[in-house]
Write a structure and sequence with these properties.
Chain B: Keywords: Signal. Chain B: This is Copper-binding protein MbnP-like domain-containing protein. Chain B: InterPro entries: MbnP-like_dom (IPR046863). Chain B: Pfam families: MbnP. Chain A: Keywords: Heme, Iron, Metal-binding, Oxidoreductase, Periplasm, Peroxidase, Signal. The complex is a heterodimer of chains A (340) and B (254). Chain A has 340 residues and is mainly alpha-helical. Chain A has 2 domains: 179 residues, Cytochrome Bc1 Complex, Chain D, domain 2, CATH 1.10.760; 151 residues, Cytochrome Bc1 Complex, Chain D, domain 2 (Orthogonal Bundle), CATH 1.10.760.10. Chain A has a two-stranded antiparallel ribbon. In chain A, strands 3-4 form a two-stranded antiparallel ribbon. A two-stranded antiparallel ribbon of chain A has the order 5-6. Chain B is mainly beta and 254 residues long. Chain B has one domain. Chain B has 3 helices and 16 strands. In chain B, the strands form 4 sheets. In chain B, strands 6, 7, 8, 11, 12, 13 and 14 form a 7-stranded antiparallel beta sheet that branches. In chain B, strand 2 and strand 3 form a beta hairpin. The chains are: A mainly alpha (340), B mainly beta (254). Chains A and B meet through helix 10 of A and helix 2, strand 12 and strand 13 of B.
Chain lengths: 340, 254
């Protein structure tokens, strides 16, 4: 472990501040060329020791009430850190009410609103929430802190990461957030195509055109483009899933009826690994998703005006355009990401 | 021994230099962007409700309104110009960037005209802007690439008296979508605010009359032109024509 001690000396005081080994994010070229830099909190810089600790915590069931469930159980690497189940099961067998969100490129969520309804600000706060959620890990932070403090390894790991072996929930959340920021996905076939490293099939190319064509898919207004490699606007929209809402989404957070039925646009990266789809996991396949936008839109007071031809159910894509759109969408999946 | 930080030393030197020289007639300027519907103020608190009626008679709501301004230019009567650095994405929906202070200083004095560009001129439109890419502001390459000039989304009551979405998106008009798009005419708008004398930190209060987008010279019927307007070069040219009188200078405070 490399650790530096910086000494700040002023005329009348001397303060020692522990600094672990810096480990800045490796920004992919397409990100550096096309979008603004990621968000790294001043009070939680990326460090080797912090990331190592955060990774251990992420995969350790010690955070749950009965030591049976880790973050990774509902955010599995092979599913792009999502859950293949429609709703994740907590330690007591309770099911959540929304599909587990995949975890990648989180440092580029510029507004720092997390979860499907944006109810939590900052990645550190997001990492804090599931531990005490009764439908998830159903623990409490006092117990978690005690278990970690009594563990044979954690106190030393915290000391290496943060300069103190006194473990508290804030440091746990900081470490997990540091690890989550390293989950960067930027090596899909389409990324390689943009970098000139591979060619797309004619179906994938036509699918991209369907995606970008305002008279066809018109997906780019909300889901990024070749110039926005996040493949999401990280904003909230009502995409016409329901006429009435059993889950108000953003509206329940803001209290504004104009936000009812709005949920975060998920990234379209890694769709090959993240089924089922939508906030409630209602669609098992990409075909169902595409059919929804093509023929299945349901109107409501808050449906986004960007949803086209609602009175016809949607944009009415041809079967070949649907197949090509699916082929393009799958080209955004990053197999390197789930392996490594 | 007392220590003086480098930044403080720099400030002291700068202060000293200023006090020893003649008055430096440089000032910052600020541009505030306000919005109205035929004289009635509009903010994002007025959004998401069918409460506006356009010249054709369509009743409509506003749900999203963002637009780009660039190339703020100060014109001297002798032909010299000062072009201020930067551009500004006004986001009325989220109440962001309604006030813009360019980093470039302006010399005080009389100007025969002050202007800005709604959108980007064709040269600027071809650059790569990471902040605008991040804001999902791009125009697909199949429509010539570049960036939106405006995204104005909402709903209107259609002929069947049902709410229907509209996307009044202004871009560079393209006549021939495809690999080599052609452009029938420029659709960015140079907005002239008229002569002004700048004496000190000036604040320009700009008004956008949103209703004008639907009014003159083209009375806009949303039943006919509502969505997929980006590839519609005729609609883009109509937007350009209607946009000529959308902006006005309400006042200059200094």
């Amino acid at each position: 472990m490399l650790a530096l001690l910086f000494c700040f000396s002023c005329e009348n005081e001397s303060v020692e501040q522990y600094v672990a080994t810096p480990s800045p994010l490796q920004i992919p070229k397409l990100f550096a060329d096309n979008i603004i830099p990621p968000i790294i909190p001043i009070d939680n810089p990326q460090t080797q020791e912090g990331i190592t600790l955060g990774k251990k915590l992420f995969f350790d069931p010690i955070l749950s009430g009965n030591n049976t469930q880790a973050c990774a159980d509902c955010h599995a690497p092979e599913n792009a850190f999502s859950d293949s189940a429609k709703f994740s099961e907590g330690i007591n067998g309770n099911l959540g009410s929304r599909n587990s969100m995949p975890l990648f490129n989180l440092a580029w969520n510029y507004d720092e609103k997390f979860f499907w309804d944006g109810n939590t600000f900052s990645l550190e706060h997001q990492a804090f929430v599931p531990v005490s959620d009764p439908n998830e890990m159903n623990s409490n932070w006092k117990d978690v802190q005690l278990k970690l403090q009594q563990d044979s390894e954690y106190p030393n790991l915290f000391k290496n990461a943060f300069g103190t072996s006194n473990i508290d929930s804030t440091l746990v959340a900081k470490a997990i957030a540091q690890f989550e920021r390293t989950l960067i996905s930027a090596n899909s076939k389409f990324d390689q195509y943009l970098l000139g490293e591979t060619e797309l099939t004619s179906n994938e190319l036509n699918g991209f055109n369907v995606f970008m064509d305002e008279t066809k898919g018109d997906c780019f207004h909300c889901h990024g483009s070749d110039k926005n490699p996040l493949w999401t606007d990280n904003s909230f929209h009502n995409n016409g899933l329901d006429n009435t809402f059993t889950d108000l989404g953003l509206g329940a957070v803001t209290g504004d009826p104009a936000d009812n039925g709005k949920f975060k646009s998920p990234s379209l990266r890694n769709l090959a690994f993240t089924a089922p789809y939508m906030h409630d996991g209602r669609f098992a396949t990409l075909e169902e998703v595409i059919n929804h936008y093509s023929e299945g839109l349901k109107t409501s007071a808050t449906i986004d005006p960007l949803m086209k031809k609602i009175n016809q159910g949607g944009v009415n894509l041809s079967d070949s355009d649907k197949a090509d759109l699916k082929a393009f969408l799958l080209s955004l999946s990053d197999y390197d990401f789930i392996i490594h | 021994m007392k220590r003086i930080s480098l930044p403080l030393l720099f400030l002291l030197m700068l202060s000293s230099a200023c006090s020893n020289n003649d008055k430096v007639d440089l000032t910052h300027v600020t541009f505030n962007f306000n919005h109205n519907w035929d004289g009635t103020a509009v903010t994002n608190t007025d959004f998401n409700a069918i409460k506006f009626t356009n010249a054709y008679g369509n009743q409509l709501s506003i749900e999203r309104l963002r637009y780009l301004i660039s190339k703020i230019t100060f014109h001297k009567s002798d032909g010299k110009i000062i072009v201020l650095e930067g551009y500004n994405l006004v986001d009325v929906t989220n109440n962001e960037n309604l006030s813009f202070m360019p980093s470039t200083f302006v010399t005080t004095g009389e100007y025969s005209n002050i202007s800005f560009t709604f959108g980007f001129n064709n040269e600027d439109n071809m650059n790569n802007y990471t902040d605008l890419n991040t804001a999902s502001w791009i125009v697909p390459d199949m429509l010539g690439g570049g960036y939106h000039y405006m995204q104005f989304d909402g709903k209107f009551l259609n002929d069947a008296n049902k709410e229907q979405g509209f996307n009044y998106h202004a871009i560079r008009a393209v006549d021939n979508p495809g690999e080599n798009p052609s452009f029938p005419q420029d659709t960015f708008i140079v907005v002239n605010l008229g002569p002004t004398t700048i004496t000190s930190n000036a604040t320009f209060n700009i008004e956008m009359n949103i209703a004008e987008w639907f009014k003159t010279p083209n009375t806009w019927n949303l039943n006919e032109l509502n969505q997929a307007l980006m590839p519609n070069s005729a609609a883009q040219i109509m937007m350009n024509e209607n946009g000529q009188n959308v902006f006005s200078l309400e006042s200059v405070n200094q």
